[in-house]
Amino acid sequence: MSGRGAPLSQFIIKVHSRCDLACDHCYVYTKADQSWNSRPRAMSEEIVARTAGRIAEHARFHRLDDVRIVLHGGEPLLAGRPLLGRLLSILRDALSFVPEVDIRIHTNGLLLDEGFCDLFAEHGVRVGVSLDGDRRANDLHRRYADGRGSYDQVSRALRLLQSRPGIYGGILCTIDLANDPANVYRALLRFEPPHVDFLLPHATWDDPPPRPAGRPAPYADWLLSVFRLWEEGGRPVDVRLFNSIIRTTHGRSSLTEAIGLEPSALVVIETDGTYEQVDSLKVAYEGAAGTGMNVFSHDLDAVAAHPGVVARRTGLAGLSRICRECPVVSSCGGGLYPHRYRSGAGFDEPSVFCPDLYKLITNVRGEIKIQRHVLPAHTLDALARGLGGEQDIRWLAASQRSLQQALMTTLRTREDARAAWDVLVDMESRAPDETRRVLTHPYVRAWAVQCVKGTSPARYLANIAAAAVVRAGAEAELLVQAHDGLVHLPTVATLGPVRGETALLTAGPDGILLDGRETASRSVRTLTSGTGYEILLEDSDPYRDCHQWPVAPPLSDEQADAWQAAFDAAWRLVEREHPSYAEGIRAGLNTLTVLAPPPPGREASSAARQAFGAVAAALPRDPATLALLLMHEFQHVKLGALLDLFDLYDENDPRRFPAPWRDDPRPLEGLLQGTYAHLAVTDFWRVHEPRGERFLRWGRHTASAVETLAGSGSLTPLGDLFVARMREAVTRMIAEPGGAG
């Protein structure tokens, strides 16, 4: 082998260079590159054997766990069953040592019969077929040379595949704006495909796609019509483009080369044994896909090092400046590489479909967010009354996880976070529960927000990934971030001391090493109650200092014991006297952060908007006060999550409003937050001190503040409803003092 580089793992083998259709939108025969005309019609057995040998040596050298092969053309079935049978036997034998070999064939379906299906079933080959919709849509372009349409023959092939689901790979559909998107989508569904790929027609800046006047993004409009039908129907089929947008929005890999930042791992082998880059490059110019290499003289490492191949593997760095600065680049990835071509600029351009991709991705992201996180009416009603049970809080937590994923997705292409991102994605698939426990730690989001703003290092993602690895008992090596000579793994431990700002962390059978040495470790502290509730007692996370009060330094064992005693007593009180609050708190509160002691005679507590799941407090004078602080601050946690989802007031209102419990007037959000928190304060004293002075005072204050909110004139319709429910809640409390909350 010529050297160890990033391996190739996807191989398109052109088994036949001619086609029995004359589709007028085919990139092989109707675009700039016409090299097909000088190549042999079918791949010879000698070239088949050499191709299989090259793939096998590459897979063995790089220890590939999976290889994907697509038999293509022209029309590959023109090669005939005997040649295809020998080719498949040679490939399976040569790659028998590879754990997973995925072989597919892409055909126009005209020649597909039971004999071919038996052959493909024998060798585990899945069959994809091209169909552009109903008869009218398909026959607009997919025609014989004499002008006859192909719909009847293709539909026959698809019905055959419906009866052979074990080899049915799916349908590829090329978009034409002249075709009605709803009719096309429904026509495809009639054949019950396991997958559908919607393909933009191949085009470049030199040869742009048709665009009706006055419609800047018509391909997005077409696809969004299909997307809404797909959503309304409950996503009955895997549509790779839509699923790829959803996956990349949440930081996962794309399922299609049409979008995404994943480096290309694909090479084409033509019928004469020459290697080519992705063959859709033929739309750009004559020879655009060429490498000057072949299976007899060059191994696949040499192909992987070809400048054209390397250019398609550089991720964000390989995109134009416009693309790198685009807010949807993590999903778009610049679009399909050939679609960026312009004479004189090469491929250093956005996609010629840039307006369409931008509109499609932003709309899909927006609609997915709305559909995933619209709260049930009963949940919104319960929360507006100041309460919320377990399932209600789980709705809020799910929305916060999505926001967290969106934040962290923006970091995946950062050079100093890329290795950690790969580990984290791997851990999410191998140990999802442990990884989620780390990712939902409140101060992971606090770090992510600061990182996006540029005030915290992206390298800390390695600490987060390492925490998931350690929790799962897995193995990894990561360059982690140190703070003040210590390395913190959120939800796990603090390690050190270390020298410098970074350290090489190795997790494995020998435990955790930093720079190859064992180090001291202090596990995170927890608080438990006798009723089985456990949360973190956070006194060491470097990003916990996001509250309005200063945080305390790490606790001594004696101080931690005092917190344990106070928490156990406080939580028993909450569960006994305020069960309607306890259920929600237990579902959503996972961290109690220790604040520095306040001035004598005062209490200190806080909730941070960017730290869902945490409240902070200094150790209060008695357990009852701690119970009150937990209830009070968790109200802020709930309302903050709601305000991430819904507009309850006009954010542009500059006015300040009187708050009965403060000397200074408050902005509208501050008044809303304070009033909502004091629903719980009023309820606490209603039960704990019925008809007492504190209950009466907080009841009056909260009721007065509700009326100020209602009369502000700046609430949205949903805000009006929300405040009306708050009014009902405080009115009920004042009318019915005493009893369990």
Automatic annotation (TrEMBL):
Gene3D superfamilies: Aldolase class I (3.20.20.70). Keywords: Iron, Iron-sulfur, Metal-binding, S-adenosyl-L-methionine. This is FxsB family radical SAM/SPASM domain protein. It comes from Nonomuraea ferruginea. NCBIfam families: mod_HExxH, SAM_SPASM_FxsB. Pfam families: Radical_SAM. Signal peptide: none annotated. Residues 5-235 form the Radical SAM core domain. InterPro entries: AKG_HExxH (IPR026337), Aldolase_TIM (IPR013785), rSAM (IPR007197), rSAM_sf (IPR058240), rSAM_SPASM_FxsB (IPR026335), Sulphatase_maturase_rSAM (IPR023867).
